[in-house]
Amino acid sequence: MAQKFRVVIVGGGVAGLALATRLGDSIGKSGRAEITLVDKSFAHVWKPMLHCFAAGTAANENDRISFLSQASRHHFEFWPGEIAGMDRKAKTITLAPVVEPTGEVILDERKLEYDALVLSIGSRANDFGTPGVAEHCLFIDNLVDANGFNDRFRAELLKAFGNNEQLDIAIVGGGATGTQLAAELHKALDLASLYSFGKKPPKLNITLLEAGPRILPAFPEAVSAAAQKELEKIGVSVKTSAMVSGADGKGFMLKDGTRIPATLRVWAAGVKAPDVTRKFGDLKLSRSGQLEVRPTLQLVEDDSIFAMGDCAFIADKPVAPTAQAARQQAHHLARCMPAWINGRPLKPFAFHNKGAVVALGDYNGWGTFPGGKVFGGGWLRGISARMVHLMLYRQHQFELYGTFRGLMSCLVDWLDVFVRPSVRLD
Ligand SMILES: Cc1cc2nc3c(=O)[nH]c(=O)nc-3n(C[C@H](O)[C@H](O)[C@H](O)COP(=O)(O)OP(=O)(O)OC[C@H]3O[C@@H](n4cnc5c(N)ncnc54)[C@H](O)[C@@H]3O)c2cc1C
């Protein structure tokens, strides 16, 4: 029997899992191709929710999607593993061994053959080599980081409750991640205070540091100003034009010599591709290590390799690394690849900006949509913006689960409110 066309997708995030699911349901199901998804973890999470997992205001066991389960329902295969290199001539990728925290090797290094390779390995925060950041700061780039942050946050909160002390947290990066995290941590304290050992809740002193002149630079100025006002109202100290020059075990140093003391230090600024892109041989990369692609999302050097989402850089028409762009690129490839496999040319990707939404916990939110009329800062605000923010997650969940399981998942989340505390306490 002739060998089926092999599509290997590396990275099951916003873009990769959507593509694997759609291709699985089309050419995987019909038997025209063999679709394999590879990811370094075993479950998918909606990355724009990581700050909620970090604060403990969302229960990630409800929001994880098992790759193995998704694969078995949508006609693709899943292999756990971290891409460690590739041989473009032999059309193989190398997966690093899967190792237990105890050091036990569960799976040895493996090679996977492909006819078409899609790289969707996302991005991480960029510390730009700032001294002390790698050693002394926490990141929230993935679920492991977010859970690790939450463990530290709960421990420090308990200490502050027990000793009636103030807890100092400093967050670097006034983009959506840092801004939303600051608000979510406040919400976590508000909720945790309902279970306060009969003690007065401690003071949470959060400082948000942004190198640029305003927070949320991707939004209109009025939204930045309104969000800063809202954060200050709940007690977050926002410092703009604050360039961090270093970090140590006690806080951050700013370029102007100011020290910002902090027990917990979070780096949520900048975006760069995972370092592994530099091990892929002689490929053209952007300054932040993203793989340079043509408008068809094929690498500039190789017709058989595609990159999409945060790890891709479309030199002709760059798009910001957002979940919206990642999803649209996945949908584009899901539409075009089946015909391309049959020898037809690929269509160029075109980004359609549908706007942006940001939510500050339960406190406030803003949404901007292109083509609308400017209302002092956005087209939507308050509860409607927060609902749209939530809807984006539900839309993603329905797309991956289908209508029935999507509805069941909403029901489970709703019922969960009657069973568990609304903030993680253990
Ligand atoms: C806290 C936070 C809030 C955000 N909020 C928003 C928002 O409100 N709106 C918005 O549009 N965007 C938001 N973003 C950005 C958005 O999450 C990303 O743009 C989007 O997730 C990119 O999708 P992706 O598929 O490229 O990568 P990801 O979703 O990050 O997926 C990458 C996948 O690759 C896997 N992987 C990584 N390295 C390897 C490797 N070497 N081998 C194998 N697998 C690997 C990872 O495990 C992961 O599953 C937010 C990001 C964060 C961190």
From TrEMBL:
This is NADH dehydrogenase. It comes from Komagataeibacter europaeus. PANTHER family: 64 KDA MITOCHONDRIAL NADH DEHYDROGENASE (EUROFUNG), APOPTOSIS-INDUCING FACTOR 1. SUPFAM superfamilies: FAD/NAD(P)-binding domain (SSF51905). InterPro entries: FAD/NAD-bd_sf, FAD/NAD-binding_dom, NADH-Q_oxidoreductase. Belongs to the NADH dehydrogenase family. Keywords: FAD, Flavoprotein, Oxidoreductase. Residues 5-330 form the FAD/NAD(P)-binding domain. It holds the Pfam family Pyr_redox_2. Its EC number is 1.6.99.3. GO terms for molecular function: NAD(P)H dehydrogenase (quinone) activity. GO terms for biological process: aerobic electron transport chain. It is an enzyme of class 1 (oxidoreductase). Its cofactor is FAD. The keyword Coiled coil does not apply.
